[in-house]
Amino acid sequence: MKIDAIYLRELNLPLLRPFQTSFGTTKDRRVVLAEIHSEGLIGWGECTAGEHPHFSEESVDSCWNVIVDELGPTLAASRVENGGQVPRIFGLVRGNRMAKATLENAIWDLEAQMKDMSLSRLLGGVRDVIPCGVSIGIQTSIAELIALIEREVAAGYQRIKLKCKPGWDVEVFERVRHRFPAITLSCDANSAYRLKDADHLATFDGFDLLMVEQPLWYDDFYYHSMLQKRLDTAICLDESIRNRRDALAAIEMESCRIINIKLGRVGGFSEAVAVHNAAYERGVPVWCGGMLESGIGRAHNIALSSLANFSLPGDVSASSRYWAEDIIEPEVTVSAQGEISISDAPGRGFEVRTDLVDRLTVRKTEIRAHALVN
Question: Is there a catalytic annotation at residue 163?
Answer without folding.
Answer: yes
